[in-house]
Amino acid sequence: ISFNAIDSALSSLKNCQSYINSGMDVATQVALDLVQSFNDEEDVNNMEKVMLEYATMDRELNHYIKAFEETINQVKREKPENFPDLENLAQEKFLEMESKNSDLDFEKNEKYMYFKDQLKEMKKQYLGNDTIEQIDEDIAVTRSQMNFICPITQMTMKRPVRNKVCGHSYEEDAILEMIQTQKQKKKKVRCPKMGCSHVDVKGSDLVPDEALKRVIDSQNKQ
To answer: Per its record, what are the GO molecular function terms (predicted)?
Structure first.
């Protein structure tokens, strides 16, 4: 039995995943643009719906690929005398996976969760400061600028990354250098933000803090 054609089809499906990922990246940038330019909440909500559709497509595609891979592996393992209907077998597996779908699945989608996190931060920076500014504009500016300072370099961040575990941000080069130095000493890295109890900062937990970078860039232009 030759599986070349099937392997080629699976390879094409996996390429589709890269298009979904690109679409999710674009949707994230558009949503952040909308918040930054104070567009209607409805426009931002529409981008959230777009992201949810992308995440749903990604889950469906993952199930389809997994169903076909499991079917092929099963046939290779069992080596039946009569060649089975691969499409039907794969379809059964696919429908079984889809029947177990839950909204919790989206929490495993890194790009969707990154979108939710960055959108929340962006809204906090651009839409959540009104009450603070009404109390005291100077205090508001000072608090905002304090968030721009890297706890390691004590300088305004240029490429901030956010720790998914504790939520603190650092200058990318500074935190990666700290992780590398401690790794050579076989030691863990404690979050350098004062008062944080997180004691094991890992490079895999860091994501670009696009929301914070936009705010810093905007402040610098002023």
So the answer is: ligase activity; SUMO ligase activity; ubiquitin-protein transferase activity; zinc ion binding
Mean pLDDT in residue range 48-62? 95
Range of the domain at 90: 3-127
139 occurs within a structural domain: no
Tokens of 101: 């779908």
pLDDT, tens digit (0-9, with 9 covering 90-100), for 89-101 = 889 999 999 999 9
Q: Rounded to whole angstroms, how far apart are CA atoms 48 and 168?
A: 24
Residue 137 has pLDDT above 60, yes or no: no
Specify the amino acid at residue 75.
Answer: V
pLDDT at 134 > cutoff 50: no
User: If you search the block for the tokens 């200058």, which residue do you land on?
Assistant: 171
Domain boundary among 127, 152, 184: 127
Find out whether 29 and 70 touch, Cβ atoms under 8 Å. no
Nearest CA to 89 out of 14, 8, 6, 12 is that of 6
| CA separation for the pair 209, 28 (Å, rounded) | 12
Please check whether residues 58 and 105 belong to one and the same domain. yes
Cβ neighbors of 62 (< 8 A, separation 6 or more) are 17
CA distance 179 to 176: 5
